[in-house]
Write a structure and sequence with these properties.
Blueprint (H helix, E strand, L loop, with lengths): L4 E9 L3 H12 L5 E3 L13 E2 L9 E2 H14 L3 E3 L3 E5 L5 E5 L3 E10 L3 E3 L5 H5 L5 E2 L2 H4 L7 E5 L3 H13 L2 E5 L9 H8 L4 E4 L2 E7 L6 E6 L5 E4 L3 E4 L3 E3 L30 E3 L11 H21 L4
Parallel strand pairs: 1-2, 1-8, 2-5, 8-19, 10-17, 11-12, 11-17, 12-13
Antiparallel strand pairs: 3-4, 6-7, 7-8, 9-18, 14-15, 15-16
Helix pairs in contact: 1-2, 1-7, 5-6
Length: 314
């Protein structure tokens, strides 16, 4: 453990839309925020190519460029943005202890968590290589780019069913690849999928490879009962097998649901620990959009400012 200890009024953990928005508001409120960027500075948007649904970018924007803009705005108001990864926390007392890269300890009067979530992937080399070039983990974000085209989606839960029906409104044909002989989705969602004419469900199928050099040109699937292989003629491949919130370091400190999403007091970003606030996809498993993450980042900074003010910390 490093000898150099530092105390800050407001520490922000994570640097996606939620973290940067929290930083903008906290810095303007003179909380002198310090941000620890994490393993993926900019968050999930840095692996997204075109963002067309964020207000204020009428021509659309590349995900990494948008995060650079957010960062520049946070820095303009004086946010101290640092490389690093939070490896442990101690939320025992009124002053919170945070360890960065297993060596540097920072204490903070308030903490804003904006660690986000990560999409779960199948683990195929081709899926990784074509991520952002026809492969996506968000139908709501990217479905628009496949208007009138044929696409495939893998998954069997409520999210997959919801995204398949969403895609069906935009696309000519949607292949739904389901590993087992039934879906895990609720009966209501299953009926909705089954009653959508342009969705074809491929039960007992698994994805072997996403085809294409620069963009997706097809998907090779295998019937796991018969072993028969075939290629689906699609230009888009969506993965909807779930998300994992990046919240492991907060286990045993902050109340979470069974999948690890942080629980907040309804109508606020307050957690069960006074002075610790949760924002963005680390606490939102429903909307998961850049604009909603930014909104909760704003809320977290305002909640932190009020908390510090009530404590007489200026």
């Amino acid at each position: 453990m490093s000898e150099t200890k530092e105390h800050v009024k407001c520490l922000i953990i994570g640097s996606g839309p939620a973290g940067y928005t929290a930083a903008i508001y906290a810095a303007r409120a003179d909380l002198k925020p310090v941000m620890i960027q994490g393993l993926q500075p900019g968050g999930q948007l840095t692996i997204t190519t075109d963002v067309e649904n964020y207000p204020g970018y009428p021509e659309g924007v590349q995900g990494p460029k948008m995060m650079e803009d957010f960062k520049a705005q946070a820095e303009r108001f004086g946010t101290d943005i640092r490389w690093g990864y939070v490896t442990s926390v101690d939320f025992t007392g009124p002053v919170h202890k945070i360890v960065i890269d297993e060596k540097t300890e920072i204490t903070a009067d308030s903490v804003i968590i904006a660690t986000g979530a990560s999409a779960k992937w199948l683990g195929l080399e081709s899926e990784n290589r074509l991520n952002g070039f026809g492969v996506s983990a968000c139908a709501v974000c990217d479905g628009f780019f496949f208007k009138g085209q044929d696409v495939a989606i893998v998954g069997a839960g409520d999210t997959a069913a919801e995204e398949a029906t969403y895609l069906a409104k935009l696309c000519k044909k949607v292949y739904m690849i389901v590993r087992r002989d039934e879906m895990r989705a609720s009966k209501a969602m299953q009926h909705r999928v089954e009653n959508t004419a342009n969705i074809e469900i491929l039960y007992n199928h698994e994805t072997k490879e996403v085809m294409g050099d620069k963009t997706v040109t097809g998907v090779k699937v295998v019937n796991n009962k018969s072993g028969e292989e075939k290629v689906l003629d699609v230009t888009g491949f969506f993965v909807a097998i779930g998300h994992q919130p990046n919240t492991d370091i907060f286990k045993s400190w902050i109340d979470m649901d069974e999948t690890g999403y942080l629980k907040t007091t309804p109508g606020s970003t307050k957690t069960n620990i006074p002075g610790v606030f949760a924002s963005g996809d680390a606490q939102d498993h429903i909307y998961r959009q850049a604009v909603t993450a930014a909104g909760t980042g704003c809320m977290a900074a305002i909640d932190a400012e009020r908390y510090l003010s009530d404590k007489g910390i200026h």
